[in-house]
Structure formats: C-alpha cells, structure tokens
Amino acid sequence: MKCWIASFPRSGNTFFRNILYYVYGIESSTWHKETTYPVDQNYDKFDFVKTHLLPEELEPSDENIPAIYLIRDGRDALVSIAHHRSDIVEPGSDFKTNLKEAIFADEGSYFGGWSNNVTQWTKRADIIIKYEDLISNPKKVFERIEKLISLPQGNWENLPDFKSMKYGKPKYGGQTTSKIIKIEDSDFAEKFFRKGVSGTWKSEMPDNLLNFFWQFHGETMESMGYDPSPSKTPQNSLIDELEMKKLGLHPEGISVEKKKIKVLIEGNKLLDTKNDGIKVYLSQLLKYFEILEQKGSSQFSFDLLIENKVIPIINYFETINSLKSTKKNYEIYLMSLKGLIKNYLPKTIYNPLADIYRNSPVRDLLRKTKKSTLIKEEKKILQQHSKISVDYDIVHLPLPQNYEKIKHFNSKVVVTIHDITHKLLPQFHTRLNINQSEEGILFCKEKADSFIAISNNTSKDLKQSYNIPESKIDVIYEASDPNLFYQNFNSNHLEHVKNKYQISNHPYFLCLSTIEPRKNIINTIKGFKIFRDKHPASNVNLVIAGEKGWKVDKILAENSKGSQNIIFTGYIEDIDLKAIYSDAIAFCYLSYYEGFGLPPLEAMSCKTPVIHSGVSSLSEVICESGLVANPEDPLSIADKMELLFLNPTLRNDLAIKGFEKSLTFSWRKTTFETLKVYKKCVH
Q1: 18-44, pLDDT tens digit by residue?
Q2: Where does the Glycosyl transferase family domain lie (predicted)?
Q3: At which of 181, 204, 227 does a domain end?
Q4: In 10 A of CB 168, how many CB atoms?
Q5: Helices 207-223 and 95-104: crossing angle, nearest 10°?
C-alpha cells in the first residue's frame, strides 16, 4: 500500500479514483467499517486505498503511509450527502432532516462531522486537494501528486468527462457502488453523481440550516479559504491571500522567509480556577497562536510568561496543570482557612477578632516580613526579566492588573483593556481591586505602545478617562466559542443538566454571571417578583447561575424575601451551559456596565432572546436582537419578562435575530486582528 485517499463523503474521491484508473492504469480499493458493504479482503495490497474514516480509525495505522486529503466546500458536501441518503442509502427519508443531522453530526456521526473530519485529516495528510481544483484542472492537481508518489506515465486522453461517467458505467462510482440497493441505471446515475459543480448549496440549503452550518463549521470553512457568505447574514470578513501575506502567513502553509516577530504573552490568569471572561479571552487567543506555532507558517512566534517562567506555547496546558498543582499551596490553605472562619463564625464574634488582628503588632510584623521578601524577589525578577526581554519584540498584557509581572521588560507592550469599571463605577468594587486596576492602567498609559479595547464603548471610555491617544487604540471584539455555545437539541443532556444543578422542569428566566453588585442581580430579582405577582399560576422560575463574588450580602438578603421560585445553581461547567441557555425563556442581563458582554452573546448563539440594560457596550453587541429594560426600574424589567413570556412569536423573532447577530463575531477574526496590532507595534 502506497497511499490513503481520504475525504469526507461526496468530496471527489470517486472522480479521483477514476483518474488513477483511466489515466494511469492504477486500480484502487476502499477501507470502511460499514456492515452492509463488503471490504476487499486484500484492500491493503492496492497502491491506493480510499477512506472516509478518521485517521485514528485506519487499518493499517502506520503513519508513515502517505495520505492525500480531498476537501470540498462543506455546504456542498453536506447537501450532497443529505441527497445521497434520501435517494440511495435510505430512500424516501426527508432531505432537510438528513441535512440537519449531517450539520450537527451528533455524537460523532457522519464520519466525525465535516469540521472534525477536515481538521484531523489536514493535520495528517501530506497533500491537501480542493475538490474545486480537482474538477477544474485535474492534470495540474496530479502534477502535485506525482511529486509525492511515483506514478507511471499518464495518458490524459483516456480521462472520461463528468457526463460520460454519470450516464456510463465507470470503473468507480455509478452502478459499481450499488451492491445492496437496486435502482434503475438512469435513476442511479442521476442521483449518485448529482451535479458535480460547486455552489449547489445556494439553491438547496435553507437559510436557517445555512446559519446553523456556519455556526458549527464556519471556523473550519474560513481556515480552508472558503467564502463566508451564507444567506442574508453578514459574516466575518475572510482574511484573503494578500492579507495573510501581509501578516506573514502563507495560505498553503509555506514558511515566509522573514524575521520572526517574537511575542511573549503574560499568562498568569490561566492559573485561576474561575473561568471568567478574561481567562476565556486569553485561552481563545492561545488556541489559535498554538496552531500557528505548530504549523510554523507564521511570521510570529509565541511563548507564555507564567510565574516568571517562560513556557513554550505548544502543549502549554500540560505545564499549566503542573503549575496549578504546586502553586503556593500554603497560601491557598491559609485563604481557605480564613474563608471557613469567616463563613462559620457569627459576625458578632468574627468582626471584633478581625479588628484586633488588624490593629495588632502581629499584622505589622507580617507585613514587614512580606515586604522584605518581595524586595528580594523583585531584584531576582529584575535580573531574570532583563535577560528574557532581549529575546522578545512584544510583551502582551491581557490584564492591566498583572502589570507587575512585566514591568521590568524593555520590549514593546501591548495591553488589552476589558473595562474601566473601577474608575466609572467604584461603588461596585472592593478598595483593593480599585487600587490594583488603577495602578495597572496608569502603568500601561506610560509604558504601553498599543491598547486593544474589546468594544467601541471601552475605547471611548479609555480615551475620555485616561486621555489615551486614539492612534494607540484598536477595537477588537470578542466572540462566543462555537464548540460550546449552540442550540441544544439533546433532551437527554438537558435532563441530566437540570438534575445536576437542581433546576425544576418549569419554564425559567436565566441570569448568568459572577454574583456581584455591578451585575444588578437585586433589581433583576425585584423585577421577577413583580412578574410573578402578576402571573402567580405561571410556575415560572428565575435561575441565577454563577459563583458568589463580592459585596453579595444585599443580593442574598433580597433573595431571602420570598424566594420560592428563585434557584441559585452556583458555578455551572462550560459543557453544560448550552443546555441551560437553550432551555430558558430569555436570558436576563441587566448589568450597569459591560466592557463587552460575553454571556449575552453566548445566549444569542444558543438562540435564546436577551433582556438587557442597553448600557455601555451591550447595545453595541446585541443591537436590535434583544429587549432593553431600565436597569434602575424593576417594573421595566418585569414588563420585558412578561412581554417575552406571553408572546412566543416575538420570542422566536428575537432568537433568530440574536443568533444571526452572533455569527458576525469570530475568535479567528479576533486572532488575526490581534496579529495586525503586533505587526503595527513593531513597525
């Protein structure tokens, strides 16, 4: 066996095999796991073997066997496979149902799903061939293959055209593949070969399924260079070949001979156990940076700075998990002990003891000891960083509060500003957080060469509050994770999640955030109580998901005033969120300020309508796809809840608008725009 010919079904594999046979005189075989279709007993003795399975399922599993992967526009491939099932595999089955199932590929069906199949095989394959190129210029395509594998002299005059293969009896395809199902020759040819052209999805894929397709597979489509323009929904602009070259990225993965721009990313946020918006932001960027590093096709190289150690970005998770397990265990123990004492001792006892400790000489002694230790560590860090900074063109600080980690570097500094609530709404923060945030931004104002603001509103606030020049600020949006946030159709998973978090089967409104004053949980609870008083027989609940943050006493006190229909779930794991979002009547986010607003966008990705406060960046992100309520007025909040509860048509319209709006945000786009900032920063 010389080579695997791999593809997702309906991507040109049959045509490829016919070229091998008619032009080069080479027969080929297939490898699959279907029980209704036999495998050649000696399939592995053929030079070329076709498969649709994933690389891990191959037999033989020898990775030294070369592989050619054929890729086709996923929209065309899935439309074709849905027709193939309706016409041949399961005659009479519904085309739209088949198409929907193929798009979702639940539990790894449909050969792992289009995106997964493409992603795994493009990593494994030695040559990647686009179906569109194979159809338009097969001879040129095979010139590439002849460089990989020795082939006999080809006779291209023997190649039959598409029409003759469709209505004739070619070596591969047509009736030769119909060993189980008996269909008349003319009908089978029409149904098996179909059109053989690109773009058939435009007339056959309904808009709603097209948008679902893009939510699940848009990232892979863009990475393979396919035009992202489904239905009437505005999509992320494709990074074209010219733009990729400007960034030092070659579309075919060929290294660009330029001096590498070396980027060091401060990554201590990754050690946090909480998965907040800043950690999500950093993790998503690193996901794409790691891919670029693995391909070696970028003008950039990336490392992480964690606890004053430089960590290679490839397989960084393993190193981080190791650091997490050993991270200042004594500090974690002391903080846990302090928390337990505070929670279990009555305030009448705890508060006097805390005052005694604060005013005692013991505390001053501990402070002096800690300060002396920090001075020694500072000198050591300075020596380390003076050596490290020589090797990097840019240091990226994703969180200004962590400026201490990079303040001794001499490299260019890029900082991401998520919000400046400590400045605009100090009443919602602790004194410690206000001081750390202010120190961080003032350091960045003096030292940073470029600012990334995650919304236009954050950019505006940054300019107004700190007089940062507009030329130094780039607005780069965040996005929801398409692998986590999509409409849940799995009723078994929903039932499991509800049981896990003790959510009843009654309808509910949903809040999701760290429970702290800025999120305005108090007025949301008040608004819900007004709604419940008007509709006492509705059995509607309010589900409040998220960990306790700071200044929560008033929030919990408000909840204690008649809280039978309010459910606090605590932290919800990411894998369970789509089910919680998808099942809600609406997502309520009446925050007083947001730098961007990831939770509403996640809800929109799950086709859940949003009630929001319309302040800061929320109207910018949600636009016309949600209902705005006055965050200061519980009655206004109750009115919007009532409107969505009583009007399923409005609820559905807003769900569609929100879903379509969510498709305009992309972490891939975020990554490329961040690379542009790096490039601008050093030139």
Answers
A1: 999 999 999 999 998 876 677 788 898
A2: 499-658
A3: 204
A4: 14
A5: 40
